[in-house]
Amino acid sequence: MKSLTGPVLLLFFLLATACNGSDDASGEKVSDARILEQQPYAGLTDSIGSDDKNAVLYGKRAALLIQNGEYSLAEQDLEKAWQIEPSEELASLHVNTLLLMGRQADALAQLKSLTEKYPDNTTFKRRLAEQLMHGGQFDQALASYNKILAENPDDFESWYEKALLLLEKKDTLAALKDLEQSYRIQPLQITALTLANIYAERKDARALELTNAVISRDSAGEMIDPVFIKGIYYSNTGNYPKALEQFNTCIKMDWKFQEAYIEKGIIYFEQKNMDEALQQFKLAATVTNTYPDAYFWQGRCYEELGMKKEALQNYVRAYSLDKNFKEAVEGAERIKKQNN
Question: What pLDDT, in 10s, does the model give residues 32-41?
Answer without folding.
Answer: 778 999 999 9
